[in-house]
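retry 2 of 3: previous attempt timed out while embedding flavin-adenine dinucleotide. Reduced batch size to 1 and resubmitted. Inputs unchanged:
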Amino acid sequence: MENCKTIIVIGGGASGFFAAINSAINFPNAKIIILEKTNHFLSKVKISGGGRCNVTNETLDKNKLCENFPRGKKELKQVFFQFNTKDTIEWFAKRNVKLITEKDFRMFPESNTSSEIINCFLNEANKYNVEIKFNKEVLSIQKLEPNFLIKTNDSDFFGDAIICCVGGFNNLGKYEFIKNLGHTIISPIPSLFTFNVPNSDITKLMGISKDVTVKLLQTKYEETGSILITHWGFSGPVILKLSSFAAIDLFNLNYSTSISINWINEKNESRILEQLNDFKNKKIKIGNLSPFQIPKRLWEYLVTKSEIDLMKNWNELNKKEIHKIIKILSNDIYVMNGKTTFKEEFVTAGGIDLKEINFKTMESKIVSNLFFCGEVLNIDGITGGFNFQNAWSTSFIAAKNVLLNK
Ligand SMILES: Cc1cc2nc3c(=O)[nH]c(=O)nc-3n(C[C@H](O)[C@H](O)[C@H](O)COP(=O)(O)OP(=O)(O)OC[C@H]3O[C@@H](n4cnc5c(N)ncnc54)[C@H](O)[C@@H]3O)c2cc1C
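retry 2 succeeded.
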C-alpha cells in the first residue's frame, strides 16, 4: 500500500530520528526524508544529561510514569500503553545499546556517552535509507489533496504524510506554520529552572545540599527532595521539580514569590520539640551541636537567622528561643525573585493543544495524515529521562500509523 509514498519528517532531533527510523521499518517501500533547519542533527541528544544522555527512567509502572508529566499526564496514559520505558530499553537493546540504571532510576547508555545513542540512530537511518536534508527550515505546509506541499527556506517538497517533530520554541512566532494549519498553540513558557534568591546570605552556603520540603507560598505546590544551595539561590532536584509543576503559576507571579523550606521534613511542632528534648539538657554550645544531621555551616546560619547567640549552651535556651528554632527548622522563609536557566530553557511548557491530537495514533484531528511528536506538543516532564521517553513513545506511535490511511 505504501509503494512510492513519501513521509516527510520535520526536525532532526530525538523524535524526528526515532519517527523516521521506525517509519522506515514499518513501511519499507516508503521514501523517508528528514528536513532539519540547522546544519546538524540530534543536537539536544548530544548535550543531554551532561553529555551522557539520560535516555529514559526505569519507572516501569505506566501510571507512575505519567505522574512525572505536569502537562500531558492524562494523554500519555494512552501513549505509554502502546510504547513505554520497557519498550525503549528493548528497542535499544536490540541494537546493542545497553541502558543501565542509576540509583535514582535514571537510565544512561552503558558507555556513559550520548554518542552511543547518536551512532545507533545514524546506523539505523543509514540501514533503512532515511534521507537527511540539512539547512531546510520548514516555513509552511499546505494540504494539496491527496498530499502536502512543504515549503522550506530554499526548496519545496511533496509528502503523502508528515510527522512534525520540531521540538519546543520559546517564541510563539516560531509555531506560525503550525498555527496556519488551524492548530491552537498554548503559549510557551519555561519549565525546569532554578530559583534566584537575591539579598539572602544563604547563598554564602553554596554547595550544601539537603533533603527538604519546599512550599511555594502563593501557590498550591509543595515538593520533597534534595535542594542545592547555589551562589544565586536554590537548585537541585526538588527545585527543578517545583519549577516544572508550578511553571504556569510562577510565570504568572513573574517569578516572584515566597518560599518556605522545611529543613527536616517534619511539620508537627510537638514532634520536633520531642526530638529536641535530648539536646535541651546539653551543656554544649548550640553552634557546636546541630540536630537532625543538619550540616554545621547551615545550622550556624539558621541559628544566627533566629537571632540566637551561637555561643549559648543548649541548656540555656528559653522557651521562646526553642520555639524560634522549631520555626526556622520547619518553616524557613525566603523571597524568590527571578529564575536561572541552564543554557537555553531545559524544556518548554506549552505547544500544540492536546485536545487537537488523537493519542491512539498521534495524528492531528484537524489535518489528516499530519502527525505530531515530542516537545512540539503541550507535554513536558520533569528531569530524569521523562522528556526523551515522551519523544520515543509519541514518535513510535506516529511511525506505526503514518501511512495506514494511504
Ligand atoms: C541542555 C538540555 C539537556 C537535556 N537533557 C535531557 C536528558 O538528559 N533527558 C531527557 O529526557 N531530556 C533532556 N532534555 C530535554 C530533551 O532534549 C527534549 O525534550 C527532546 O530533545 C525533545 O525532542 P524533540 O525531537 O521533540 O525536539 P528537539 O530535540 O528539540 O528537536 C527538534 C529539531 O527540529 C528542528 N527544527 C525546529 N524547527 C524546524 C523547522 N521549522 N524546520 C525544520 N527543522 C526544525 C530543530 O533544529 C531540532 O533539530 C534536555 C534538554 C536540554 C536543552
